[in-house]
Write a structure and sequence with these properties.
two-stranded parallel ribbon, 2 domains, 259 residues, alpha/beta
């Protein structure tokens, strides 16, 4: 619903821009709609985008390697259980953590790092309208998250995942200015919605291929104590199923590095 509303606003803006640039309404309407398609795809679609350089999958090089990532944590309700499952199966994952969640649970954030997992920056406030933010506002939010993460874990993340995977025209400059890389995902289960474990497993397996970056959630942007029981039930099944299919799990930075 959020994407639909934002997309409609983008369409209206495209039409209005054409109209105020001097085109008649009958020209502005189709031209605006035509402009809307690449704009909406660049902002809202999680794949590589002309709006901002984006990594959505890794380099497979013929190898069946994937990265398991978790967004919106840490939380007391799910993150420790995720860490236990990963330890039992000897899987290294990448956690894109929110600054405001780290401030609530610094010890859990530290436990993620101490377990050898990779940390990424997933903003401080998790603004769903991040694509409307100015460069300075986006930089302040990212930097605030970076400071909280560094204080709690001693780690300075080099990877950034924007809220909901949305991009904007200013993000390229922010990434360059901070020396970070924007990482999205190629396999998701929509596990923040009411869904059972079997559906999560089926959705991930359907979308996985060599180089896939898998998205699951151990937290929630608006709920400090989310119910992630379905995800926790699905996680060991996903790991075991993909391993049977010959996949190896690596951190995002290893999946996307060259040479």
């Amino acid at each position: 619903m959020h994407v639909t509303f934002a997309s409609l606003l983008l369409t209206a803006g495209s039409v209005a821009g054409c109209y105020f640039a001097g085109a008649s309404l009958w020209v502005a309407l189709p031209l605006g709609l035509l402009l809307h398609v690449p704009l909406a795809a660049g902002v809202f679609h999680t794949a590589p985008s002309w709006v901002c350089p984006t990594i959505a999958r890794g380099l497979s090089d013929g190898q069946k390697r994937v990265a398991l990532t978790f967004d919106d944590g840490p939380t007391q309700e799910a993150t420790p259980a995720v860490l236990d499952i990963l330890a039992q199966r000897q899987v290294r994952a990448t956690f894109f953590i929110m600054g405001k969640a780290v401030r609530r649970h610094p010890r859990i954030a530290r436990a993620i790092a101490e377990a050898g997992h990779e940390l990424g920056n997933h903003s401080y406030l998790h603004p769903r309208h991040v694509y409307l933010w100015s460069r300075s506002t986006l930089t302040r939010d990212l930097s605030a998250a970076q400071r909280v993460i560094e204080k709690a874990t001693g780690v300075s993340p080099r990877l950034y995942r924007p809220p909901l995977g949305f991009r904007s025209f200013v993000m390229a400059g922010v990434m360059k200015g901070t020396g970070m890389r924007l990482v999205n995902f190629s396999a998701r289960a929509y596990d923040t919605r009411p869904v059972d474990a079997l559906t999560i497993v089926r959705r991930i397996k359907k979308r996985v291929g060599p180089g896939a970056i898998i998205l699951l959630h151990d937290g929630a942007d608006r709920d400090p104590a989310p119910d992630r029981r379905a995800m926790l039930e699905s996680l060991p099944v996903i790991i075991d199923a993909l391993r049977r299919d010959g996949y190896e799990f690596v951190a995002v930075s290893e999946l996307i590095k060259r040479g």
